[in-house]
């Protein structure tokens, strides 16, 4: 009996790992198939549900991704990545209040999460809360000086505030950290 259970667990773990490999290679359909195989055997595996949501998101099926992320949050209301993923879907769809709500949950619980602060800053900016957005970007950079996107978004905010010299410093910092979008911002604003 224990040998059979060990094989069962080993197979589902192997399929889940295979799903992750497919995901890393950008083969989201294959990753999705592997995650579904695992969930057919272990329907409450929270991390596999989350990973399946990521695959759905990459495939453009935001409705299914949202279902999976919400299911994960029912199982673990503090699942950071599920909140961030759900918030990013809401942000993309123009629901900036909903996005702010998801990002803020993470910031309240984990104040030192640079990504959550950066994302909340983006939502604050879209909601017209410029001062709060700037504080979020500043905090994200203070916590993680390697967060290139926080520099990029802070630079965009500074362009909006008509501070091009400060913005260009941020764009160059983002560029130095490998953020490809910074090249376009530099070409457009930093002559």
Question: Can you describe what's shown?
Answer:
The protein has helices at 2-24, 28-41, 46-58, 62-75, 80-92, 96-109, 114-126, 130-143, 148-160, 164-176, 181-189. The protein is mainly α and 191 residues long. The protein has a domain at 9-66: Alpha Horseshoe (Serine Threonine Protein Phosphatase 5, Tetratricopeptide repeat). The longest helix is centred in the N-terminal third of the chain and has 23 residues, at 2-24. The radius of gyration is 20 Å and the shape is elongated. It starts with a helix and ends with a helix.
Please render the helix and strand layout as text.
Layout: H1 2-24, H2 28-41, H3 46-58, H4 62-75, H5 80-92, H6 96-109, H7 114-126, H8 130-143, H9 148-160, H10 164-176, H11 181-189
Q: Which sequence of SSEs, written as H and E, runs from N to C?
A: HHHHHHHHHHH
The total beta strand count reads: 0
Question: What is the annotated CATH architecture of the domain at 9-66?
Answer: Alpha Horseshoe
Structural class: mainly alpha
Largest β-sheet summary: none
What general outline do the C-alpha atoms trace?
elongated
Q: What's the assembly state of these chains?
A: single chain
Number of helices: 11
* Low-confidence sequence ranges: 1-11
CATH fourth-tier homologous superfamily of the domain at 9-66: Tetratricopeptide repeat domain
Strand portion, in percent?
under 5%
The radius of gyration is 20 Å
Helix content: over 70%
Round the mean pLDDT to the nearest integer and report it: 92
The CATH class label of the domain at 9-66 is Mainly Alpha
In whole angstroms, the N-to-C terminal distance is 71 Å
């Amino acid at each position: 009996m224990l040998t059979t259970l060990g094989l069962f667990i080993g197979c589902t773990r192997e399929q889940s790992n295979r799903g992750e490999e497919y995901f890393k290679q950008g083969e989201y359909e294959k990753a999705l198939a592997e995650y579904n195989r695992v969930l057919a055997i272990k329907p409450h595996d929270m991390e596999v549900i989350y990973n399946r949501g990521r695959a759905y998101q990459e495939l453009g099926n935001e409705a299914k991704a949202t279902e999976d992320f919400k299911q994960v949050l029912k199982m673990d209301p503090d699942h950071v990545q599920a909140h961030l993923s759900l918030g990013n879907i809401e942000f993309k769809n123009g629901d900036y209040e909903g996005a702010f709500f998801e990002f803020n949950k993470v910031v309240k619980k984990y104040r030192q999460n640079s990504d959550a602060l950066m994302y909340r800053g983006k939502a604050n900016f879209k909601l017209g809360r410029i001062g709060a957005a700037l504080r979020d970007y500043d905090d994200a950079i203070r916590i993680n000086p390697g967060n290139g996107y926080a520099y990029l978004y802070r630079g965009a905010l500074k362009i909006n505030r008509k501070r091009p010299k400060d913005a260009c410093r941020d764009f160059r910092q983002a560029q130095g950290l490998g953020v490809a979008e910074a090249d376009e911002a530099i070409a457009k604003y930093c002559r």
